[in-house]
Amino acid sequence: YYLLSAFIFGISGTIISVLIRIELYSSGNRIISPENQNFYNISITLHGFLMIFFLVMPGLFGGFGNYFVPIFQGSPEVVYPRVNNFSILILFVSYLFIILSLISEFGGGTGWTLYPPLSTSFMSLSPSSTGNLIFGLLISGISSCLTSLNFWTTILNLRSYYLTLKTMPLFPWALLITGGMLLLTLPILSGAFLMVLADLHSNTLFFDPIFGGDPIFYQHLFWFFGHPEVYILIIPAFGIISIIISGILQKIIFGNQSMIFAMSCISLLGTVVWGHHMYTVGLETDTRAYFTGVTILISLPTGTKIFNWLSTYLGNPPLLHLKTSSAFFGLLFLLMFTIGGSTGIILGNAAVDLGLHDTYYVVAHFHFVLSLGAVIAIFSGIIFNGEKIVGSKNLLPSLSSTLSLYHLVSTFIGILL
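Given the sequence above, the corresponding structure tokens read:
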């Protein structure tokens, strides 16, 4: 159900992104009527929210987690199956709220970050649509928190008797780390959203600079969630790519413990570098120097992971002629993630970022990591574990079929264009 609903939600997000691309095809109004220009902002907002909270998080975290954590642990179910049920049910409710914000009177074109004072203004936008957005995100956050609590208790308490945390596969480790980051950062995001909601509807002045509020404070709160969020999105993808590479090459990943340590380092460092989204808001020089240093420090564990995967690939030369599409998907993930990570290292410098902030360089960087990293991980996980998921070999293209190879090649060409 998680994977199916993520598929449906992702289709709606993709339609919105296609609208954006058609509109930006050349100058002037292409598809959005001139009297409704705000729809462009609304579509950017909804595209961000739908893709992050309703495609990648239910797909990678909820869907693959609920399938494969009990399998890898040898446990019959997750610990709280009904809590699990509840979390996917309220995911549909939150999706309904997000769509309701689309059809309210003026729309909620605040960008996916909901920055005040734009999100708290009564001038251009509708408070009801921003309220719907915030309600939807709060409900989705409750769902993610319940799911990660479930995974934590499952992974820590419901293992087979021979599995220790040291011998556990990489995918439950990835979900453990991801759930920890979610439980740490989602309450902060919920607090920031509730402050915006109170500014809108309850006449508080958290983010009103006229009365001593501070919009920058919201940016600190939001990005303290928003930067761990991108690692929440990518670390389950790391886990899936690890099980695919080790499954195709029939080897344990080279340096298993170092991979676990690298994921833990990424999550710990990822929670203290939120300021690199805010180089241009007037931070002090030494603050920016700290954020630059720690941001570039994150590249060390990710480089460790990439070279470990590559050594696993090269460590079994007789199997390298198995040109199956999942092997190609894994290599494609590595290529895309390397490109995205290299652009991110460039963006991590405070001086460079002054010129590159809010340009298409940033958009290309995180779409290389997310759209071409996490989504490729979803595809390859579905193709690699297709008959395990749906229970039959005829519904999905199998591991080595021509159809999945066509899918791979067309995906590759399409995403690089």
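The mean pLDDT is 85. Try to locate this feature in the token string yourself.
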